[in-house]
Amino acid sequence: MDVELPELPFPLRTYGPDGHWSYEDGVLTGRAGGRQDRFVPPIGEDLEPGCDAPRLLGAPEGDFQLAARVTVGFNTAFDAGVLYVQVAERAWAKLCLEHSPDLPTVRSVVTRGHSDDAGAFTVDGSSVWLRGSRTGRALAFHASRDGARWTFVRLFTLGDERQTSAALVGFMTQSPLGEGCVVTYDHLAFEESWPDDLRDGS
């Protein structure tokens, strides 16, 4: 199913399980079902990817910054709302507001065959602003408590410039241990640019 949001200059398409995606009055809503996630554990041998999760993705051209305020209806540890970017089946990354497991936390995961997992900072309440950016082969994640001052989370690559220029970008919901959760994304914003400085709070 294709979805067009007025804030984004590119169409979105659903991937994975049904996320019951809807959009009304500037608010995008998605729902994760029980035991849905995308994570490939780095521990052990011959491990398969974690079960799939609802994604709503599109392919912007050139440099960009995609931002949204993410609000999660937390029910169980590791429920999360996600900004997501993918260049191949085993090359993708997610920036999450996740209940992990005692406090809502901004976390990032980069998967190149197997997934890493890194915490950034905790959040009071169930909302935070998340932002993903791209230029060339480089990708960056930022998060903000107020939507004004941004904290640098990480800078990384998922492939060469050709692969990264064709990346799918958008939104994901997850509930790896629970029976599901609802996530909303509002204050959606898109700019055709790369941040001037990754670490100055802008």
UniProtKB/TrEMBL annotation:
Descriptive protein name: DUF1349 domain-containing protein
Record organism: Streptomyces actuosus
